[in-house]
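Lab meeting, action items carried over

1. Structure of the two-component assembly. Owner: GW. Status: complete.
Input record:
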Amino acid sequence: MTVRFIAGIVFALAVMAGTLTDRPSKAGPVGTTVLAGDFHVHAAPGDGVLPVWEIQSEAARRGLDVVAITNHNQNAATRMARALGFVDPYPIVIPSQELTTSGFHMAAIGVSEMIDWRLPASAAIAAIHAQGGVAIAAHPIQKSWVDVSAAALRMLDGSEVSHPMIRGHAPLGAELLAFFQHTRTVNPDLAPIGSSDFHGATPLGLCRTYLIVDEVSRAGVLDAIRRGRTVASGPGDRLVGDDAHVEAVRAHLRRPQAPGFGYTVSTWLALGAILALGVIVVLD
Amino acid sequence: MHLVSRMALIALVIGASTAVVGTGRLTWSLVVSGTLLWSVVPLLQLLSGVLLIRRADRQALDGYFSTHRSWSMWLLAGAAAVLVLPDPGGALMFLAATAVVPIILTARALAAFCRDSLGLSRASARRRVGLHQVVTYAVVLAYADFAVALMPRILALVGK
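Predicted assembly:
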């Protein structure tokens, strides 16, 4: 029995144990009016590391009710997942786009036809709305939002105020908040949004949005964003939103997300599997 | 290890590593999904290997695929780092920068393969590897354009 064979057995056993200890809940919320969502998630194929169906499972593990798949100017990942029939009804997965232009990035939530990146912001938002979607300013710090008109700000539905980029970078957090507060003076229903901008390494839902919904559905989620009935959460226990909404959300809060994956049984099993795989590669 | 087994191992390494980086855990679903999804990588490597070797020689291709080790170890080390670091997202730039190590080591391994297994002169080996690396990173660039929308970012950098 070679070392490589033993390493293969160790890998298989570790993965099996990891599977047995994994119990993501896909049952769906019952009787709740507060949902947790992540509206800025990247998938594979694209610049995310996970396919859509595994993002859905991970969303269930992390207590998220809804995720939006926002790859840059393309939606191949969502189309592939739907064609394969691998997407369950819950957590809700909303096909979307991170509209990536030279002057701004925008999360176009709920669009099936990709928005042309050459459009100015106001025309892009109009195109998003024409598809029944909502437009969220993605990480609108000064250096990444340079070309946006006042008209566009009035048309936005949401703005990211919680984003992992602000960890250890307080000035960036201040910029996000300043953009939100300034835009709200001309757009009172602007929804505060928290997003993880998930690609990998930083956990899904590290920053998230709590939504006060009338119905647990894609339509209910989009309606909550349009009406500004959201609370942005994270990093840690930071909450941004209207006082009444924050109060409504507090009773439903899941525990704050740690910046990493934590040191659980699953972590050590995965580490064992990775080390076993490393032995196989070294001996190849 | 046989050619097909080696290609399967590469796909498995990429699939398992990306699953860990995305979730901090491994399940059979994650392993199978990731391995199948990223199996396109060893297939593309096979095509570029035929370009390097200039023939579809199974034994030579088997030797060519043995140069995967640097990249595979880098992926696995990155996955392990994500598991043990308290804030892996914060170390992402540093982890990405270490890719220069497998870039250099793989080019050197390919050159050694060309000299030792294909019997090429030092100069011919450098030319072949140079062409191979140009094609490889052109494919990487094409995927990057698809994945991150390079054109608007380039326009933003040059100020339109």
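2. GW to write a short summary for the group page. Key points so far: Chain B touches chain A through 54 residues (CB under 8 Å). Chain B has nine helices and no strands.
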